[in-house]
Amino acid sequence: MTLLIRVLLLIAYGLFFLSTGTSALVAATLTAGVARIDITPPLEMQCPLGGYGERMNKPAEGIHDRIWAKAIVLTDGTQKFAIITADLLGFPFPFKEELVREVKSHGWESNQMMLLASHSHASIEMNAFHPGNTFGISQIGIYNPQVHQFTLANFKKLLLAADRQLQEAPVKVRIGTSRIQLEGWNNNRRKQGFTDNDLTLTRIDTATGKPMAVLVNFTAHPTFMSSRQMWFSAGWPGHLQRTLETLIGDEVTVMYYNGAEGDQSPRSRPHSGESRWEKAERYGVELAAVSHELWMATGTESNVEFRQHTVEFDLPPANWHPDFMQTGGKEYGLSTSLLQQMIPKLFAERSHCTTVQIGQLSITGIPGEMAAGMGAEIKRVAGEKLSVESPTIGGLADAWISYILTEEAWETGGYEASVSFYGPQLGPVVKQAALESFPLTGP
């Protein structure tokens, strides 16, 4: 075959993919920038802890361990994408839009980033930085403009710092992902149904082999601490990240993101002691040890597929579950008249799902707390459609809209259903959007 014929065939091949409107699988060497920022509010800011209405908006009394946000920005030279993880309960739905407005002049758009909260129940109260929270109800948290501006400013600094590193000192990276089944560490708290045992780890090294970043995905609520613990803490995910950073060394940045944890609880490790702080620490430290073994066994490669796709969708009309007044309503001190006023201000009408693929890893962002069985089905289809070995769910991505359940689970009721605010169709609607968010792979 002559050189001219080869060139003509390559051109025809490229034109075929352009004409079909699909993207060919083209592996590329990525460059990356990484940053982190301490987002622990000063105690004098009187920031409430989120996760339990029983705390009655009381401010944190101390700092057990500091809470962090971390970012990695990846680019193949034609597109870039930021993964941002944070030791937070969740993000109120206006927050990402606010962040995008802050960084738009620096070339950033909404579909170029994914915010992933760990769901720590000893971190910043989500409604403390929700500008629509004008109700002054202690059980749901009271809006604090100082906390709002502090948090927004820190996320802007974080993203721009990672982006600046990418621009000023770009580092070529090698990436690899591994997944194992880790049984006995979590369970389905509804006492039935599916438990997600996947531990998925993504290793990101420089081209010379120096550890740069690690992404860890494991599905369980960070709920060892109760409403009585009044110090800031990242919970067991914080211990996981710090310990794994120590084990690996080289100033590596470890970033944890949760999965479809709507019905998943952690199981205490043996001999953890009676203290809730001890239970959280032992869980995170031992999970870090397992993760370190997986990290050492994970190979990396320089040329990987890299793409993302976002689907926006309308949410069903927001309303409360018939069981809500006996569960969440009682915990949060709400009445029917208050709910009628609050829902239009606190709950979104539209949302989105984004899937990003990085080599053999895919992360499908879900804007809330999805039941693990639904998440497993999305992961299964992602593995087939994207031909990836390690599909994951990024739980609580970009916004907390509520718990996300199957129609059957919503109708059955219980705590998770009572804190699902868009009726029985929410689960099917979000699942469909998640499946449609997979990047196109070919004709």
UniProtKB/TrEMBL annotation:
Neutral/alkaline non-lysosomal ceramidase N-terminal domain mapped to chain residues: 32-245
GO biological process: ceramide catabolic process; long-chain fatty acid biosynthetic process; sphingosine biosynthetic process
Record family assignment: Belongs to the neutral ceramidase family.
Residues annotated to bind Zn(2+): 119
Cofactor binding description: Binds 1 zinc ion per subunit.
Molecular-function GO term, any one: metal ion binding
EC number assigned by the record: 3.5.1.23
Gene Ontology cellular component annotations, sorted alphabetically: extracellular region; membrane
Enzyme class: hydrolase
Cited InterPro entries: Ceramidase_alk (IPR006823), NEUT/ALK_ceramidase_N (IPR031329)
Organism name: Polystyrenella longa
Keywords: Hydrolase, Lipid metabolism, Metal-binding, Sphingolipid metabolism, Zinc
Necessary cofactors: Zn(2+)
Name of the protein in question: Neutral ceramidase
Reactions catalysed: an N-acylsphing-4-enine + H2O = sphing-4-enine + a fatty acid
